[in-house]
Amino acid sequence: MKKLLAKIKKHLNRRTWITLIIVFAALLLELFSWAQYYYTKQLLEDELEKKAAIEMTMKAILVKSMLNTTEQVLNSHVTEITKLTKDPDDIHDALRTIVEANDYFTGVGLAFKPGYYEGHDELYEPWAFNTKDGVMVKDNIAMRGGHDYTKFKFYSEPMSTGKPYWSDPYIDSVETHSFITTYSVPIIDKNGQKAGVAGIDLSLEWLSDSLNNRHMYPSSYCLLLTNDAKLISQPAKSHARYKDFDDAIKLINDSTGRARVVAKSKIKVIEFDTEDGKEACVFFHHMKGNPHWMIAVVCYDDEVYAGLNAIRLRTGLLMLLGFLLLGYIIYRFLKNNKRMAQNELEHERLNTELQVAKRIQSEMLPHDYITHDNFDIAASLLSAREVGGDIYDYFLRDDKLFFCIGDASGKGVASALIMSVTHSMFRSFGSRESHPARIMQKINQAVCHGNDSSMFVTFFIGVLDLPTGRLQYCNAGHDTPQLIDNKARDLDVKSNIPLGVDIDWFYEGQLAELKPGNTLLLYTDGLTEAMDAKHDQFGLQRVKDTIEQHQGDTPQQLLDALHAMCADFVSGAVQSDDLTMLAVKFIPKEEEEIILHRELTIDNSLSHVPEVNDFVKSFGDELKLEEKDTQNLKLAIEEAVVNVINYAYPTGEKGDINIEATATATSLKFKIIDTGVAFAPTDAPDVDTSLTAEERQIGGLGIFLVRQLMDTINYERIEGKNVLTLTKKLS
Amino acid sequence: MKTTINEIDGKLVATFEGELDTAAAIEVEKDMKPLYDNEDKDIVIDCEKLEYIASSGLRILLGILKKAKSHGHTVTLKGLNDDIKNVFKMTGFINLFNFE
User: Fold this and answer.
1) Which residues of A touch B69 (CB under 8 A)?
2) Sequence-ordered alpha helix ranges (H) in A594-626
3) Could B66 and A634 be called an inter-chain contact, meaning their C-beta atoms sit closer than 8 Å?
4) Is residue A526's pLDDT more than 90?
5) Which of A603, A604, A605, A606 to mutate to test the interface with B (most CBs of B within 10 A)?
6) What is the ipTM, given to two decimal places?
7) Full domain range(s) for residue A400
8) How far off is chain A from B24, nearest CA to CA, in Å?
9) Is residue A580 situated within a structural domain?
10) Which residue, A343, A474, A494, B46, has most beta carbons within 10 Å?
């Protein structure tokens, strides 16, 4: 199954997915819209049926009330009228009174049994009419225009049954010519004989108007039909749908099978199409009692469901909006998800890169523990983050220990980068230059150049001359190192300014003489400003106290003690800054017994070179060195001396060059001393011996040869003199 | 320090004798002018009796070599003792010359 899904997934590209989703959403939208329509229509249909039932009940009550009024009026008067049968004049007055009682009575009158009154016509029918000119009383309307009332049911029915009777509608042909129905009751005389009938004509037009003066819907109307569905009341001819009521009546007449009974009522309904194609329905039911007439209400679907399409449209639109919103939310969600996944990947990648950077940074630190007779060194660096802005470094060149410590402003990658630059320049310039201030000067120029980010670096460079303990140093705004003899003292430092601030700043170098056993401690502010949970700082005093408690410790022991104290102080608070320390302890070499000492002083002329060579040769011979070794010594000393002759004094100026040769049981030492301008031959670049003849420069070979032939070469400027010391170990 | 220059079998042959230190190099450089000026012959330098050479001597040899190479000629060093050969090795000059 999973395989199948995967296969399907593989074959459906993104575009297809989107199309499918849209189609699905559209189908869903249509389905919901349709369901909504259907449901609303059902609601409206129920509503319509309820409304129709109420309407019809109301109309029935209206009709009934009119009929009841008519019946009551006639019933209450009929006895009185019966009493008046003796005098027709009295009858006239009574009829007038009755017909005036109600607007919807068009007439009221009596129809006597033929021949009932002597002295009157055979057919006697006094009748009062409501005309537009007022009430008019006719003494006898029988046989007017051939009007024979005995042929009318309003007469014959009560006469035969003795019960009141409601006639079917008919046109009053005698007087008013209006559409009427007549309610009639038998008149019983004092002998208990039927004397005739009394009747009231009810205006059906008036009834129609009353029934149709208000509608459920603008075009709907109400019909009143007899028991056998003959029209009693109809809408006015001005009614918009006047022509449809014939169809409705026909349907009611032919309702077998088509009519549906409305739930929980006796009302029936028939749905039909009008001639002009409108959907309509007619509700109808019989009134209770006598007359057993029918009330019908016709409604048109377009009005009943007029709101439905609007509702459907509105719902559809709302749903479409909803879908769009949902789609947008899903889209954003997916996009966010994707972005989050990407962010996560990116984060992971950055993390990996940071780990690599951390490794590179830590690999850049000196790892080889230098063991040397003249010093003991230890250093440590704890980054607050993956990569840090702190650095320390140290290396040996020509009997000199170069070391530095630095702290770039800020933390993290930016400071790590600028510190890497500073560090590599320290290494690079330090390989060519022995004077800390000049190294600092060059690094500053390089760091300032193009430092648009206003980063700066505090830096301290020290160069310890191992044979003498002379410490040359230069400080660029870094924390004051501690010089430890029997107690911790601040090293006298000119603060200068940090690197990267002012390209023209002149960095001043300083000198200190380290005594045997002295230790120099360098640190970054990560030590003194290490904070505990209460934001109190470790402080310099605690550093000094710790140092004094650990008199005589090795540098490594001192650093371990400081770390322990510091960790104890912060007690688990998050490390806020990089913490770096470096400690150097100066241990002078024990003096060996000198077995041979010779000196030679020449002036700065190349013509004295053979003298120098003879001097070295005789020194070698005295020591009974092998011929080959003496030759090598001779070459080395010649090259060193020639270098001094060529460069120590300005052209044409005379000056002395002193050569001291000393030998111990284990080594030879040559000191070449001049009083010329400060010049460090050891800072000359190495010669690339792999170049071709065309590429090779003529020159620069001298010091190179010295380095090759001797074990160490060391330059110091001491009290205005250049002192170049060459040593060779004896095997 | 003694030097001679002879033309033998169409080659310029210089002989170095004694110690070629920095002081001697000043003279030797002048003496070698014919070799610098040479444009049409290969050069052989006989070092059989050369006892010592300083970097200034090496510079002279390099100058001769550069010149000769620029005219498409070779410089061959002959009979170097071990000490001097060692200096050639140290300086990488061993790669630059022909040796016999």
Assistant:
1) 693-694
2) 609-622
3) no
4) no
5) A606
6) 0.93
7) 370-586
8) 9
9) yes
10) A474
Residues B48/B52/B57/B58 CA torsion (nearest 10 deg): 80
State residue A256's pLDDT score.
64
Residue from the list B21, B62, B83 with its beta carbon closest to the beta carbon of A628: B83
A635 confidence band (pLDDT: 50, 70, 90):
very high
Residue A139 confidence (pLDDT) = 81
C-alpha A150/C-alpha A366 separation (Å) is 142
* Contact list, A625 vs chain B (CB under 8 Å): none
A410 and A494 part of one domain:
yes
* Residue A263 touches partner B, C-beta closer than 8 Å: no
Please tell me whether the peptide bond between A158 and the residue prior to it is cis, using omega within 30 degrees of 0.
no
Task: Give me the helix-helix angle, A14-83 and A88-101, nearest 10°.
Answer: 160
Last residue of a domain, one of A555, A586, A617: A586
Give the global pTM.
0.56
Average pLDDT over residues A90-118: 83
Closest approach of B94 to chain A, Cα-based (Å): 10
Contacts within 8 Å (CB) and 24+ apart, A40-48: A40/A308, A40/A311, A40/A312, A41/A305, A41/A308, A44/A304, A44/A305, A44/A307, A44/A308, A45/A304, A48/A299, A48/A304
Contact state of A699 with B59 under an 8 Å Cβ cutoff? yes
Residues A477 and A615 in one domain: no
Highest-pLDDT range among A12-16, A286-290, A411-415, A695-699:
A286-290
Q: Clarify whether residues A608 and A573 are in a common domain.
A: no
pLDDT given at position A257: 63
**Per-residue pLDDT averaged across A569-596, rounded?**
85
What band does A716 get if pLDDT is binned at 50, 70 and 90? confident
Domain annotation covers residue A20: no
Residue of B nearest to A687 (CA): B91
Which residue from A689, A665, A496 is spatially nearest to A591, judged by alpha carbons? A665
B17 CB within 8 Å of a chain A CB:
no
Q: How far apart are CA A443 and CA A427, in angstroms?
A: 10
Neighbours of A105 (CB within 10 A): 25
Q: Using the predicted structure, report yes or no on whether residue A36 has a pLDDT greater than 90.
A: no
CATH number, position B72: 3.30.750.24
At residue A715, what are phi and psi to the nearest 5 degrees? -115, 135
pLDDT(A238) > 80: no
Answer whether residue A267 is part of any domain: yes
Chain A residues near residue B91 by CB distance under 8 angstroms? 687, 689, 701, 704-705, 708
How open is the CA angle A333-A336-A341, to the nearest 5 degrees?
125
Per-residue pLDDT averaged across A528-535, rounded? Answer: 85
pLDDT confidence band for B84 (50 / 70 / 90): very high
CB pairs under 8 A between A and B: 75
Look at B21 and A638 and tell me if their CB atoms are within 8 Å: yes
- In 3-state terms, what secondary structure has residue A596? strand
Q: Which two tokens stand for residue A99?
A: 């017909």
How close are the terminal C-alpha atoms of chain A, in Å?
82
Residues A564 and A617 in one domain: no
If one counts the domains in chain A, the total is 3
Stretch A480-497: mean pLDDT, rounded?
88
Domain match, A384 and A423 both: yes
Q: What is the CATH number of the domain that holds A519?
A: 3.60.40.10
Question: From the list A609, A634, A705, which residue is nearest B23 (CB)?
Answer: A609
A605 and A528 in a common domain: no
Q: In sequence order, what are the residues at sequence separation of 6 or more whose Cβ sits closer than 8 angstroms to the Cβ of residue A122?
A: A114, A115
Whether B2 contacts chain A with CB within 8 A: no
- Whether A673 is in a domain gets the answer yes
Question: B62 and A693: CB-CB below 8 Å?
Answer: yes
Look up the domain containing B22 and give its range. 2-99
Mean pLDDT, chain A, as a whole number? 84
Q: What is the pLDDT of residue A636?
A: 94
CATH number at residue A236: 3.30.450
pLDDT of residue A255: 63
Q: Is the pLDDT of residue A700 over 80?
A: no
